Amino acid sequence: MEQHMRWGAMEEEWRKGPWTTEEDRLLIEYVKLNGEGRWNNVSRLAGLKRNGKSCRLRWVNYLRPDLKRGQITPHEKSIILELHARWGNRWSTIARSLPGRTDNEIKNYWRTHFKKKGKPSSENTEKSRLRLLKRQQFQLQQQRQYQLQQEENGMDMKKIISLLDENDNNNGLPYFPQMRQEIIYPNTNDESGFFYSMINGCATMLETSYEDIMWGGLWNLDDFHGNIQPGNAIKRVG
DNA sequence: AATGTCTCCAACCGCAGAGGT
DNA sequence: TACCTCTGCGGTTGGAGACAT
């Protein structure tokens, strides 16, 4: 009971609303050191005044290094349509077939583009197309600014990275090198990024392409349903 | 210039299931 | 078996930017 009272008192102090860069940094450090999970420990171990749910959500939807940023592509759009027709609003299931996309992202996309019945897709209009182009330019600009900011923060990040190196010597978790790389090259679509090189490496090994690997999730899904599409591009080695 | 609308997306909430005690 | 805690999921809200009226 006393414990419950303490929890109740704690909950009064949880911060809500948009995350600051400092909070993001603390959460990233926490995940690097402790891995994903045990989210309710974050406030105690990382000094964050956020509850576990909020931390998990922030990590899964925004900070995770393997997230794919930017517009939903026409290819992704068609996959979303197909999988939604098959499974309905099971966003997390759909998201598993779209590498780098979150259930939240897909859910949001669906809501704004397909939810409204009776209205033709606004993307077909010239006006919307221009709006889309402008937005893409804006996002690109934001992404560049973010990368510049990362470079400016390089010294601080180097400190963190050296701390991680020390930590790696202790527990040898394979996850950390990727985290380090993503700090330096945060854009996973950038050819200099770890994610890109990793996928490309796999593509070379499997004698296929980057795109085919990226869409592997969907093909695996079809395999699961015993409905292999003709022209399945991934050659399975071995 | 002011206001309304659309789109995007981050974040919160409630609920349910899994797992531990 | 019952209870509790943690985690994940889906629904929903609200703010911000861009564009239309």
TrEMBL record:
The protein's name: Transcription factor WER-like
InterPro entries (UniProt xref): EOBI/EOBII-like_plant (IPR044676), Homeodomain-like_sf (IPR009057), Myb_dom (IPR017930), SANT/Myb (IPR001005)
HTH myb-type domain mapped to chain residues: 15-67, 68-118
Keyword match Nucleus: yes
Primary location class: nucleus
Transmembrane segments: none
Organism: Olea europaea subsp. europaea
This protein's record includes keyword Repeat: yes
Gene Ontology, cellular component aspect: nucleus
Annotated ranges, domain Myb-like: 11-63, 64-114
A GO MF label: DNA-binding transcription factor activity
Keyword set, alphabetical order: DNA-binding, Nucleus, Repeat, Transcription, Transcription regulation
PANTHER family in the cross-refs: MYB TRANSCRIPTION FACTOR-RELATED-RELATED, OS04G0508500 PROTEIN
SMART domains: SANT
Subcellular location: Nucleus
Database matches in SUPFAM superfamilies: Homeodomain-like
